[in-house]
From TrEMBL:
<comment type="similarity">
    <text>Belongs to the LDH/MDH superfamily. MDH type 2 family.</text>
</comment>
<dbReference type="Pfam" id="PF00056">
    <property type="entry name" value="Ldh_1_N"/>
</dbReference>
<dbReference type="GO" id="GO:0006108">
    <property type="term" value="P:malate metabolic process"/>
</dbReference>
<dbReference type="InterPro" id="IPR022383">
    <property type="entry name" value="Lactate/malate_DH_C"/>
</dbReference>
<keyword id="KW-0521">NADP</keyword>
<dbReference type="InterPro" id="IPR001236">
    <property type="entry name" value="Lactate/malate_DH_N"/>
</dbReference>
<keyword id="KW-0560">Oxidoreductase</keyword>
<dbReference type="InterPro" id="IPR010945">
    <property type="entry name" value="Malate_DH_type2"/>
</dbReference>
<dbReference type="InterPro" id="IPR036291">
    <property type="entry name" value="NAD(P)-bd_dom_sf"/>
</dbReference>
<dbReference type="InterPro" id="IPR011273">
    <property type="entry name" value="Malate_DH_NADP-dep_pln"/>
</dbReference>
<dbReference type="GO" id="GO:0009507">
    <property type="term" value="C:chloroplast"/>
</dbReference>
<dbReference type="InterPro" id="IPR001252">
    <property type="entry name" value="Malate_DH_AS"/>
</dbReference>
<dbReference type="Pfam" id="PF02866">
    <property type="entry name" value="Ldh_1_C"/>
</dbReference>
<protein>
    <recommendedName>
        <fullName>Malate dehydrogenase [NADP], chloroplastic</fullName>
        <ecNumber>1.1.1.82</ecNumber>
    </recommendedName>
</protein>
<feature type="domain" description="Lactate/malate dehydrogenase N-terminal">
    <location>
        <begin position="100"/>
        <end position="247"/>
    </location>
</feature>
<keyword id="KW-0809">Transit peptide</keyword>
<dbReference type="GO" id="GO:0046554">
    <property type="term" value="F:L-malate dehydrogenase (NADP+) activity"/>
</dbReference>
Length: 441
């Protein structure tokens, strides 16, 4: 495993062993990043600047650069400032090419559960080596170092690199997956409109960084709330990345809905399939019992209490987070991390025949008549290649349509609130009320 701090590129001499066989790797300082005609950064290898952990291998450094490194030298923990490359004969032949995964808000409680799942191979598989690139803030940087230390001590065989930093232009370099968790929580007296603006600016900046330095086909999972509109802001600020690659997380809502249906039907939750969450990750979300199935049968054929389905079911799904906080005083960080794992695995493994999953994605070209140019949760299928297609064979009756329209109207209103962040002029913010989910205030 390699753990590196962003920046500097060179480890302090006190940490280097003269007999080390670790090999040098190129480093690309901020002032050497040059955008190409498409706004993306192309990297050029400069022989006079290289990252190496053996001082005998550092060649052709200018005096000016050497002074700069001394002046900017930061404290490193253990192997944080080292780089590691397996020799060709040491590589496990069955392992795949290293995958780069960025996580923002990496010192937070959700990440504290997620990162170890990523590093263990639970998410991308037992033969997929991974590099974790962790984004924090100036205030959380010391905690971020602690996270990296725990990852270091866990000795995950698949975890080959860990980088930490506070600049998304550094952290997001060449990432193929980005999980954007970090967002400002809603404070006392803060209106939803204020939260949209504050967090929207964060995701606008991160979208711009992804656009310039990430892999051209990076897949982005937005978790920080309000996640649907944050995902829209992010994709609008990353025009060189396919809009289809951006997702807002509604998988926890899907998982909660499956659990409630299973409890009501008296079956284990693996019997529940074809569960869709339509719309926004808010109290206007629509858990769809019309198309869901229990042990292969329509839910309405298994659960005869249709009044419960129409009235109590949706409320139970929406209020689950708040009920959890009342029980033990904490938000649902662990189950959120599990749902992120589920969301990624739904894109990297083929969807079982006849089933689907929920994800909030870009609506352009959707077959349901939902307004275009928003991020809306809809039923998806995947062949396991990271891509997806929208499911066409769903039933939408008047009951379901009315609720979909309500969530659509809310997302269109949120979009008008952030017009200044997506290049659509001045914002006009007239939200229909406080629709933040209980437990996410």
């Amino acid at each position: 495993m390699a753990v590196a701090e962003l920046n500097p590129c060179f480890a302090p001499k006190s940490l280097l062993h003269p007999s080390s066989s670790l090999s040098p790797r190129p480093c690309f300082p901020t002032h050497l990043r040059q955008p190409n005609a498409f706004g993306r950064i192309s990297y050029t290898s400069y022989p006079s600047i290289s990252c190496s952990i053996a001082t005998s291998k550092v060649k052709a450094l200018t005096v000016e650069r050497q002074k700069e490194e001394v002046n900017n030298e930061e404290d490193c923990y253990g192997i944080f400032c080292l780089t590691y490359d397996l020799k060709a004969e040491e590589e496990t032949k069955t392992w795949k090419k290293l995958i780069n995964v960025a996580v923002s808000g990496a010192a937070g409680t959700i990440s504290n559960h997620l990162l170890f799942k990523l590093a263990s191979g639970e998410v991308f598989g037992p033969d997929q080596p991974i590099a974790l690139k962790l984004l924090g803030s100036e205030r959380s940087f010391q905690a971020l170092e602690g996270v990296a230390m725990e990852l270091e001590d866990s000795l995950f065989p698949l975890l080959r690199e860990v980088s930490i930093g506070i600049d998304p232009y550094d952290v997001f370099q060449r990432v193929e997956w980005a999980v954007l968790i970090g967002a400002k929580p809603r404070g006392p007296g803060m209106e939803r409109a204020d939260l949209l603006d504050i967090n929207g600016k964060i995701f606008a900046q991160q979208g711009k960084a992804l656009n310039v330095v990430a892999s051209p086909n990076v897949k982005v999972i937005v978790v920080g709330n309000p996640c649907n509109t944050n995902a829209l802001i992010c994709l609008k600020n990353a025009p060189s990345i396919p809009a289809k690659n951006f997702h807002a997380l509604t998988r926890l809502d899907e998982n909660r809905a499956k659990c409630q249906l299973a409890l009501k039907a008296g079956v284990f939750y693996d019997k529940v399939s074809n569960m869709t969450i339509w719309g926004n990750h808010s109290t206007t979300q629509v858990p769809d019992f019309l198309n869901a199935r229990i042990d292969g049968f329509p839910v309405k054929d298994v659960i005869k209490d249709h009044k419960w389905l129409q009235e109590e079911f949706t409320e139970k799904v929406q209020k689950r987070g708040g009920a959890l906080i009342q029980k033990w005083g904490r938000s649902s960080a662990a189950s959120t991390a599990v749902s992120i794992v589920d969301a990624i695995r739904s894109l990297t493994t083929p969807t079982p025949e006849g089933d689907w999953f929920s994800s909030a994605v870009y609506t352009n070209g959707n077959p349901y008549g939902i307004a275009e140019d928003i991020v809306f949760s809809m039923p998806c299928r995947s062949k396991g290649n990271g891509d997806y297609e929208l499911v066409k064979d769903v039933i939408i009756d008047d009951y379901l349509r009315q609720r979909i329209i309500k969530s659509e109207a809310e997302l269109l209103a949120e979009k008008r609130c952030v017009a200044h962040l997506i290049g659509e002029g001045s914002s006009v913010c007239e939200l229909p009320g406080d629709t933040t989910l209980p437990g996410e205030k």
